[in-house]
Amino acid sequence: MAKRQRCIALLGGALSTTIMLTGCLGNPPSKQGASTATAPTTTAPAVAANADLEVKTISLGYIPILEAAPLVIGVEKGFFAKHGLEVNLSKQASWGAARDNLVLGAGGGGIDGGQWQLPMPQMISEGAITNGKKVPMVILAMLMSQGNGIAAANSVRDGNLSVDLKTSSPGFFDTFSQKQGRKFKAAYTFPKANQEIWIRYWLAAGGVNPDQAVELLKVPAPETLQGMKNGTMEAFTTGDPWPTRIVKDNIGYLAATTAQIWKVHPEEYLAVRSEWVDKHPKAAVALLKGLIEAQIWLDKPENKDEAATILSSRKWYNVPLPVLQASLKGQYKIGANGTPQTNPAMGPLYWNSDRGVISYPYKSLTLWFLIESMRWKFFPGTVDTVEQARAINDKVTRVDLWRQAAKEVGVPEKDIPTGSSRGKETFFDGVVYDPENPKAYLDSLKIKK
Question: For the domain 2-144+266-312, what is the CATH code?
Answer without folding.
Answer: 3.40.190.10
